[in-house]
Specification:
The complex is a heterodimer of chains A (about 90) and B (about 775). Chain A is an alpha+beta fold and about 90 residues long. Chain A has a single domain (about 5-80), classed as Ubiquitin-like (UB roll) (Roll), CATH 3.10.20.30. Helices cover about 15% and strands about 25% of the residues of chain A. Chain A contains two helices and seven strands; from the N terminus they run E-E-H-H-E-E-E-E-E. Chain A has helices at about 25-35, 40-45; strands at about 5, 20, 45, 50, 55-60, 60-65, 75-80. A five-stranded mixed beta sheet of chain A has the order 2-1-7-5-6, with helices on one face. In chain A, a hairpin with a 2-residue loop joins strand 5 (about 55-60) and strand 6 (about 60-65). By secondary structure, chain B is α+β, with helices and mostly antiparallel strands. In chain B, the strands form seven sheets. Chain B has an eight-stranded mixed beta sheet with strand order 11-10-12-20-19-18-13-32. In chain B, strands 4-8-2-17-14-15-16 form a seven-stranded mixed beta sheet, with helices on both faces. In chain B, a hairpin with a 2-residue loop joins strand 10 (about 165) and strand 11 (about 170). In chain B, helix 11 runs parallel beside helix 19 (about 725-735) and helix 12 runs antiparallel to helix 13. The chains are: A alpha+beta (about 90), B alpha+beta (about 775). The interface of A and B includes residues 5, 65 and 87 of A.
């Protein structure tokens, strides 16, 4: 199952869980699964139909280009990091 | 050049053609913002706050309005009120209310140079004189100028109504805009396994990108409600998407034309003048142009933060790093959004650290809002981490490059902030530096007249972005092509993008004619920055060129009355798979476009992924005058994995430029502040940047570990080379004088004080 890594500042919404394994062929499906267990965390990650500004979803080491539609593999890892500012 | 994997031989890529824009720039014909002249154009000037922190009690514009030649005067009250929402502009997240307030204060000024009013007049001098006639009554407030002052109990608040975040919890009455943490493993257990633990604190001051060309903008608010903007920017589309919500007009009503840019390094991603010029233009009914002076550039644009960094690192007697803790306290400036997030992700990125904790603090101070500067946030962190790594090497008696190679991250390793590395070239570039003639040549320890010599190394990481780009290629009847792109050319990207198209099309680089156009004339393209342009816009050019080839195959098929599937293309020649007599060159076929269906143009667009990141290690020899503390760099070598060097000269130039800026940061550059938050050295005479006379040749070693997500393996180059220099110079100074300098810049008085202290005559 894909693994969602929960940032430290969101763990108060996941009962302290650092990582959560969820079913889901896309990031949206996986987050919906996460929300069933930990509803409050969704507002921290999603705004409307997209990843919240100021947050980047990183799937298997790469920032997603598909947003919530990002495909996930059974062994995928998803991290939620701050977007990178470049010069 | 060290080539790790070479998938195929190229005809254009890897060569060194003359850049397409070179001649115009050399002979002064390139059009920069200050050169722009439009019919009926008038000039604008801004009135700026003399205080770093003050409440605006009253603004009287009456004298300015009566001044000769004045056609418009505005204050914050004339600017639309932007919504307090966050938008993404390229790589950055911008709070619109903050972005608007930064352009023109309404109730309170929060940094010296904060605009409070603006004037448009018939000529530049009239505008400047009228701006001086605007009377502003201030209630001066105590500024907060350092991260420690800002975090102190009872500190004055930069923004009284601002809600900060502490590990996700909302906080009030604070200057700490954000505090976040990355953590992996168990640092206490890791330190318990260590044979050596080093802990130090470091301080840095604000540093500016130091681009030669000042910010400028010209705007025309037309009678049909549409707005035209000409500006010096790293990203025209970012300007459009920032200006539109601030002025509350639809994006499609704004056209932004990027003019040539005289340097940016991240500092020309944010907007400063465009909405002000537009509002002045609306009021005056004419195009309005503003060009900043150097003082305004220093005081009121976006430098990179100073701050304080604590690093604690442990290693066992085998040389394995067992644990690390990093606390980064970065100045955001007067609005939230320092690059501490990136700094936190880069801090330990070069090393395998199973037990790590990194805390980042984004701290409001009464200084200009910080902006991106080449690998933003990474250089500060690397200075601290690489200094501590150096101390551990000495404590363990290990060669500094052997230690870095031993602990170097590689494919499959997990970063402290979580993600696992794809294919990266950290090991390869470190090994290239170790194999360099410079590293293999022992340093003569004493220079002339008793000068002290030392050698230092440091490693650095930057992500190298991908993002969105579009390119259109138009085939001309003479067989050459026009390449239309939206990427502003800062570092030779016209050439590097055109070369990728030329490689696909079987043309010479000179036969591809790149042009950078406005926001109505090409598809959305993110900024030139984040080391992404040769990667992503180059990829878009590759796709556009592939589409041209597909179109040309159809034309050849029409010519030969066959199917496009029967046509193949190699080395600039289309040929039939079934009839070896049927061949036509790209140029010959281009001449027949009219008779085979008409003009041919094709586009490519991409939202490119990242590159896996770029690593670069630097080696520096310094010579120090023990009488004055002046540090001279006498030899410098930098190795970097760039994926694939499309144009090696420009790759070398990027590495040399990054190293040079880093050396300036290490030795001289700083915002020198008064106790009231006034920058005391806001000229290039007093803000000391290195020149060619200050430095030796910087040898660049290009290492090529191809990026698997790019058709030619491009990884990006521009930012990584500024990450390592400050740490490398600090380590070299320590090697020379035996004292660890924990404050940057390591200017002569600090070095001299350290030498005296070591010799026991510090008083």
């Amino acid at each position: 199952m894909p693994t969602l890594f929960i940032p430290i500042h969101m763990r108060r919404f996941t009962g302290g869980a650092e990582r959560v394994e969820v079913e889901g062929a896309t990031l949206r499906h996986a987050l919906n699964q996460l929300a069933e267990r930990h509803p409050a965390v969704m507002d921290e990650i999603v705004q409307g139909d997209r990843i919240r500004p100021g947050l980047a979803a990183v799937v298997d080491g790469e920032q997603t280009v598909e947003g919530l539609r990002a495909p996930l593999k059974p062994a995928s890892e998803v991290h939620f990091l701050r977007p990178i500012s470049g010069g | 050049m060290t080539i790790i994997e070479q998938p195929k031989e190229y005809k254009v890529i890897g060569t060194r053609p003359i850049r397409h824009d070179g001649l115009d720039k050399v002979i002064g014909k390139a059009q920069y913002g200050a050169d722009l002249k439009l019919p009926g154009m008038i000039w604008g000037a801004l009135t700026r706050s003399p205080y770093a922190h003050a409440r605006i009690k009253r603004i009287d514009t009456s004298k300015a309005e009566q001044a000769p030649g004045v056609m418009a005067v505005i204050t914050g009250a004339d600017m639309p009120v932007a919504e307090a929402i966050e938008i993404e502009t390229g790589e950055e997240v911008t709070n619109l209310a903050h972005a608007s307030d930064k352009l023109m204060a309404r109730d309170k000024v929060v940094y010296k140079g904060h605009p409070v009013a603006a004037v448009a007049a018939a000529d530049q001098n009239a505008a400047i004189e009228a701006a001086r006639l605007i009377e502003v009554e201030y209630e001066v407030l105590q500024p907060v100028l350092t991260v420690d002052e800002a975090m102190a109990s009872g500190a004055p608040l930069v923004h009284e109504d601002y809600a900060g975040k502490d590990l996700g919890e909302e906080t009030r009455n604070t200057n700490v805009a954000d505090h976040f943490r990355h953590e992996t493993g168990d640092t206490a257990a890791g330190f318990a396994q260590a044979a050596v633990v080093v802990e130090r604190e470091f301080e840095l001051t604000m540093v500016h990108q130091g681009y030669i060309e000042p910010h400028n903008a010209t705007a025309l608010w037309k009678s049909d409600g549409k707005i035209e903007i000409w500006t010096s920017t790293q990203g025209a589309f970012g300007v459009r998407s920032s200006v539109a919500p601030i002025l509350r007009v639809p994006e499609t009503d704004i056209r932004v034309t990027p003019l040539e840019i005289g340097g940016g390094f991240g500092g020309k991603i944010p907007i400063y003048l465009e909405p002000v010029c537009a509002v002045l233009s609306k009021k005056a009914g004419r195009p309005v142009k503003v060009v900043m002076d150097r003082k305004s550039v220093f005081e009121a644009t976006g430098p990179t933060p100073g701050g304080r960094i604590r690093v604690k690192m442990g290693a066992n007697d085998k040389g394995d790093i067992t644990a690390a803790e990093v606390d980064l306290y970065y100045e955001a400036g007067a609005y939230p959004g320092s690059p501490v997030g990136a700094g936190a992700m880069c801090a330990l990125a070069c090393y395998r650290v199973a037990n790590a904790r990194v805390d980042g603090y984004d701290i409001l101070v009464n200084k200009p809002k910080t902006a991106a500067y080449r690998a933003p946030g990474a250089t500060q962190a690397a200075y601290a981490v690489e200094s501590v790594v150096d101390e551990i090497c000495q404590a363990l008696g290990m060669d500094p490059l052997d230690f870095r190679l031993h602990n170097a991250t590689r494919e499959g390793d997990r970063r402290a902030d979580g993600p696992v590395y794809p294919r990266i070239g950290n090991l390869e570039q470190l090994q290239a530096l170790k194999d360099s003639e410079h590293y293999r040549t022992p340093l003569e320890r004493e220079g002339a007249d008793g000068r002290l010599r030392g050698r230092g190394v440091a490693n650095g990481f930057w992500f190298n972005g991908g993002m969105q780009s579009c390119v259109t290629i138009n085939v001309n009847s003479d067989g050459e092509v026009g390449l239309v792109e939206g990427s502003v050319d800062i570092g030779g990207t016209r050439a590097s993008i055109a070369m990728q198209a030329a490689e696909v099309l079987g043309l010479r680089a000179e036969e591809v004619h790149p042009v950078v156009v406005d926001t109505d004339s090409v598809g959305y393209t993110d900024m030139t920055g984040g080391s992404r342009t040769t990667n992503a816009t180059g990829y878009a050019a590759y796709l556009a060129a592939q589409n041209v080839i597909a179109g040309m195959k159809e034309r050849a098929a029409i010519l030969w009355e066959s199917n496009a599937d029967d046509v193949e293309f190699e080395d600039g020649v289309f040929s039939s798979k079934h009839d070896s007599e049927l061949k036509v060159t790209f140029k010959e076929l281009a001449a027949k476009l009219t008779e085979t269906g008409g003009p041919l143009a094709a586009s490519g667009s991409i939202r490119q992924r990242g590159s896996g990141g770029g690593f670069g290690s630097h080696l520096v020899d310094v010579e120090i005058d023990p009488e004055t503390g002046k540090v001279d760099v006498i030899r410098y070598t930098a190795a970097q994995d760039v994926g694939k060097a499309i144009h090696p000269s420009y790759v070398e130039g990027q590495i040399q430029g990054g190293a040079t800026q880093g050396i300036g940061w290490a030795l001289n550059e700083e915002y020198f502040w008064s106790d009231q938050g006034v920058m005391e050295n806001s000229t290039f005479l007093d803000y000391r940047m290195p020149t060619a006379l200050d430095l030796p040749m910087i040898d660049a070693i290009i290492v090529e570990v191809p990026n698997p997500t790019h058709p030619f393996g491009v990884r990006g180059v521009g930012e990584t080379p500024i990450v390592a220099p400050v740490g490398a110079v600090a380590n070299a100074i320590h090697d020379a004088v035996g004292v660890r300098l924990t404050q940057a810049p390591m200017k002569p008085q600090r070095v001299l004080a350290a030498i005296k202290e070591k010799n026991g005559n510090g008083a």
